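TL;DR need structure tokens for one chain.
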Amino acid sequence: MFSHEYAIAGVRAALAQRGYSVTGVDASEDMLRFARQQPIAVHADVRFVHAKYESLQNCGLGCFDGVYCIGNSLAAAG
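>> reply
TL;DR here they are.
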């Protein structure tokens, strides 16, 4: 069985290993806890933020060069 949680972890690890700064955002503490438990490349720049998409503008995270989304998370954000 393949779940989107593992897909997200794989994408995050691949981007971090290539030197990208990665920010994982989720409204679910359970999903963030799962993400934090997954292996991350040594010296990878990865941070996790507990927030809803509609509040990201007020989180002080700055700008992003790209957004990667699996599933319908961004569509659900409105």
